[in-house]
Automatic annotation (TrEMBL):
Family: Belongs to the thiolase-like superfamily. HMG-CoA synthase family.
GO biological process terms on file: acetyl-CoA metabolic process
Annotated Pfam families: HMG_CoA_synt_C, HMG_CoA_synt_N
Annotated residues for binding of (3S)-3-hydroxy-3-methylglutaryl-CoA: D29, Y143, K242, N275
The Hydroxymethylglutaryl-coenzyme A synthase C-terminal domain, residue ranges: 269-357
GO molecular function: hydroxymethylglutaryl-CoA synthase activity
UniProt domain Hydroxymethylglutaryl-coenzyme A synthase N-terminal: residue ranges: 2-164
Active-site residue list: E79 (proton donor/acceptor), C111 (acyl-thioester intermediate), H233 (proton donor/acceptor)
Protein name: Hydroxymethylglutaryl-CoA synthase
Organism: Ligilactobacillus araffinosus DSM 20653
Keywords: Transferase
């Protein structure tokens, strides 16, 4: 039975920041951001959007009434959780109008858990072939103003519908994975911003890739020529390119050129959004599907998932017949181009206006947020969502 990604969509808010302008405000050479980390713009998350509202906006684009009737599990992957007890998934059950006969769970292991969710969904559907599972990867990457991590911020949500006979990508049973307890990135309870050892984290990311990709090759007998595109978790796009260079180090020049060309399609959207944590790898998939003109059914995609702390995994998927009929080329680029670009001062105001843990009751002005689902504030610590 083929099981995999039947539908995929993405949401990021209507605001962005130009990285060259940020560099100038921070007295940094703009090329350090534009070339050094490979980012041109950064998504800015207004206080009226959080992981739940962003997830709802992403999922709403792809779900039909028939899908909602068949969904019996929602797996919500995030490291930007809004409650230590209540899952983001249960909010979605109501906001999206899903039936009550559904399992709702939130998953956490840094940026890795959307991948874990896909595999959990795969196993569920193998036992329940008529089911569908909604998988969410939603996050708001925050490191603080004028910090080393600031240029790798971003945010948004990826929504994927997992089913049998998928229209887009059939997940293969070939995953290899590697875990180790390391302190490259963490966010203690009560902290609104992440802590990170950036250089160490990059080294761990690359070492984990070497482990899982070598084991994958040993297990399957596949070399790099078996892949038509390679996708990576992209905390910033240059990091994925470093992993790609490891993968193609001894490749035939024609193979290396093809994979390098497709990587430009993989990273195109991330270059304009920034870090998505759990959704990053799968934004790369959407970007590849919408921007590549060379993909064909049956092609094998390699996917490297990484979550700090740390967990790495490599697996593959095969493009399904007719996958291109469900993809509109450069569709999301139009959304990105329509965003409002903020000045650095405006971005800093937005950054500092987020609701705090200590806010017991606070109402937000939702009039300037054009999204369908918005976060309207808190009443007695209870989060309020509005469907426009």
């Amino acid at each position: 039975m083929n099981i995999g990604i039947d539908k995929i969509s993405f949401f990021t808010p209507h605001l962005c920041l130009d990285m060259a302008e940020l560099a100038e405000a921070r007295n940094v050479d703009p090329n350090k951001y534009l070339i050094g980390i490979g980012q041109s713009k950064m998504a800015v998350i207004p206080p009226t959007q959080d992981v739940v509202s962003m997830a709802a906006n992403a999922a709403d684009k792809i779900l039909t009434p028939e899908d909602k009737e068949q969904i019996d599990m929602v797996l919500f992957a995030t490291e930007s959780g809004i409650d230590n007890s209540k899952s983001g998934a249960v909010y979605l059950q109501r906001l999206l109008g899903l039936k009550h006969q559904v399992r709702v769970v939130e998953l956490k292991q840094a940026c890795y858990t959307a991948t874990a969710a896909i595999h959990f969904a795969h196993g569920h559907i193998a036992m329940n072939p008529d089911s569908k599972v909604l998988v969410i990867g939603a996050d708001n990457a925050r490191y603080g103003l004028a910090t080393k991590g600031e240029p790798t911020q971003g945010g948004g949500a990826v929504a994927m519908l997992i089913s049998r006979d998928p229209q887009i990508l059939a997940i293969q049973d070939d995953a290899t994975y590697w875990a180790d307890d390391v302190m490259d990135f963490w966010r203690p309870l009560g902290f609104d911003e992440a802590l990170v050892d950036g250089k160490y984290s990059t080294n761990v990311y690359l070492e984990f890739f070497k482990h899982v990709f070598k084991e994958y090759q040993d297990n399957t007998g596949f070399d790099i020529s078996k892949f038509d595109a390679m996708l990576f978790h992209l905390p910033y796009t240059k990091e994925g390119f470093k992993a790609l260079k490891i993968a193609i180090e001894d490749a035939d020049p024609t193979v290396a050129a093809r994979l390098t060309h497709e990587f430009e399609n993989v990273r195109r959207y991330s270059n304009q959004i920034g870090n998505l944590y759990t959704g990053s790898l799968y934004l790369g998939l959407l970007s590849l599907l919408e921007n590549s003109t060379d993909l064909k059914a049956g092609m094998r995609l390699g996917l490297y998932s990484y979550g700090s702390g740390a967990q790495g995994e490599f697996y593959s998927g095969l493009l399904r017949p007719g996958f291109d009929q469900n993809i509109e080329h450069e569709a999301f680029q139009k959304v990105l181009d329509a965003r409002k670009q903020l000045s650095v001062a405006e971005y800093e105001d937005v950054y500092n206006s987020r609701i705090k843990i200590s806010d017991k009751t606070r109402k937000l002005d939702i009039s300037t947020d054009p999204a369908k689902f918005v976060f309207a504030g808190v009443e007695d610590y209870q989060r309020q969502y509005v469907v426009k």
